[in-house]
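User: Structure please.
Assistant: Input sequence and predicted structure:
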Amino acid sequence: MGDSSYFLGVDGGGSKTTAVVADEFGNIAAAEVGGSINFYSNEMSQTRNNMSAILSSIKEKTGIACFKSAFIGMSALNGRASADELEAFTGGVISADMVCMDSDLHIALETHLTDGACAVAISGTGSMVAARDSGGIVRHAGGWGYILGDEGSGYRMSLDAIRAGIRGGEGSARPTALTGAVLSFYKADCFDDLISIFYDPPISRQDIASFLPKVRKCAENGDETAAEIITNGADDLARTAAALLKDYPDDIPVGLWGGAFQHIPLFLSRFTSALAQKNIAKVFLLEYPPEIGAVFAAYRLCGVKVCETIKSNIKRGINKHDAIKLTKKYDGC
């Protein structure tokens, strides 16, 4: 069925999906961005359509429609997909000899390129922490979603900032630049306009999370409320990470990914400092984006070892494909 030369890696985040196709030497043949494939936040039919649209675009541009293996990192999952889940999402959509689907944290862990213990913390639209021991067993903390958790996420910090802006405007909290930022960003002439903007119809989590760059700007301009929201978010996520990592060696490598880590220096420094106080010091931004981790996972399915040639070609390809670069640009997710 599959083309023996090509492997498909997919990062299905909460806001968007990035798919990368590479050959067995790490040459990236295609990269596409599309709508979310999280089938818990969206209808299954819509997520299948979003995945199909991405693959159709890849086929149109490259002629590639079948794969040796495909690996999907899915924000809807906390672990390996069941056979029913895999068939429900990929059946009739992805043509490959081998298909596997796991959490988006799994593909982030794959970017470490190690069989030893490693960990990742992600702050995107949502947030989560995961660690894998040398035996391959993965444990996670956080990831309870926007109602029960998502501490230190783009969504949670943005929502806290929006609420603080409203309270500041009403006078029930100290004045803050977030008040004007909220009205301006959501194109509201007054606070009353926010009711219809946020509730009729209900605003998406992505549209709330997209306010985070404004929170960063307010903090950088000296707004204490905005800065506290960012530092509190970093502290909350660091506590989640520390709770998980207490059972692992202190020198476990902890890779970081997501808009808050990549584009808000205050968040990054506060998080790393909080972990350092727990003697967890090997903390750094991931070298590869999660969609490349999905490609590495697809290689692993077929027993392809990621050698220096593959790594070199992958890095070269990342710089050539705008779809992958998009994951490095800040969109609040």
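Residues 6-111+287-328 form a domain with the Nucleotidyltransferase; domain 5 fold (CATH 3.30.420.40).
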